[in-house]
Amino acid sequence: MNVSTTISRDSQGIAILKNVITVVLTLSVIYINSTLVHTFRKHQVFNMNPRYILYIHLVINDIIMLILFVVLQVLSYILFTLHVSFCLVMLMIAIVSSLNNPLTLAVMAAECYLAICFPLHHPRICTVKKTYITIAVIWTLSLLTILPDLFVVLATKPMEFFTTRIFCLRDHIFTNPELQQKQEVSNILFLVFVWVSLFYTYLSILFAAQAASANGKKARNTVLLHGFQLMLCMLSYLHSLTIQGLSKFFPKDSLIIRYIVSILIQILPRLVSPVVYGLRDKTFRKYLKSYYKRNEKIHP
């Protein structure tokens, strides 16, 4: 299929404007998240706390997804089509990072549940070593979800396919209908597991005796914020469906629909993570303030 004949393109002026907006927004969010990662690395109080380790893993995933998003969008406007092999590698990393986020939120909710409902066992269960093992398990589960799709593509597509150029979209590489059904099933399983985890931890914290304390109230609010973050993660699964649905009603505006939906689903939700801990958490907020004060002295 000659993809370049089936997908329309923006005028040069519109394309430049869209890319400038995307790059500015993306770099702004990446800068904020990178500041959080830098603060985490520089202070031992964060490196020895499983909660912050899991949080920074979530932030790093967001950074990876934002970088891939902006690179693919800019290249799609400059080159329009990309080599299948390059597109495949970029998509694989993006898909794994996307699957990591809801699983990380589930683990963070579980850690919060243990801290409130089982405070005496929490230090023994939630150690730094076990936290990094859990992160490795998250990556393994995400990889195992997408690797079968890769093997099917490698087995069914001719070698010439991987040297051709296409418009880089998941549906243009994983064209097998069974793979699309598998994707829907795996997304549902991931989300059901995470939602059940969040509801269980929230209700457990709500009815725990410690919930009457300030820490209990804070924990409940944190789990609720995890639920809000999960809702934003769910939007990424509806990305293609939203574009297709709106494009049917407004076929002449398909390009602007794809652009706006991508901004709302891929970029703006990444601002939530800095708010949850970067601004709301007292410890993180204290060190972030000192970081910006030092920068102001260096760059007045």
Summarize the structure.
The chain is mainly alpha-helical and about 300 residues long. It has helices spanning about 10-40, 45, 50-80, 85-115, 120-125, 130-155, 170-175, 175-205, 215-235, 240-250, 255-265, 270-280, 280-300; strands spanning about 80-85, 165.
* Unreliable spans: 1-6
The helix/strand series, from N terminus to C terminus, equals HHHEHHHEHHHHHHH
Largest sheet report: 2 strands, antiparallel
Helix coverage percent? over 70%
Backbone CA Rg: 21 Å
Described by the principal axes of the CA atoms, the overall outline is globular
Percent strand = under 5%
In whole angstroms, the N-to-C terminal distance is 56 Å
Label the structural class.
mainly alpha
> How confident overall, as mean pLDDT?
80
User: Helix count?
Assistant: 13
Number of strands: 2
What quaternary form is this? Answer: single chain
**Reading side by side through the largest sheet, how are the strands ordered?**
1-2
Q: Can you give a write-up of this model?
A:
29% of the residues are buried. α4 runs antiparallel to α9 (214-237). A two-stranded antiparallel ribbon has the order 1-2. It has helices at 12-42, 44-47, 50-78, 84-117, 122-125, 128-156, 170-173, 177-207, 214-237, 239-249, 254-267, 272-279, 282-298, and strands spanning 82-83, 165-166. The protein is globular, with a radius of gyration of 21 Å. With 300 residues, it is mostly helical. The chain contains 13 helices and 2 strands, in the order αααβαααβααααααα. The longest helix has 34 residues, at 84-117. Mean pLDDT is 80; it is low at 1-6. Helices cover 80% and strands 1% of the residues.
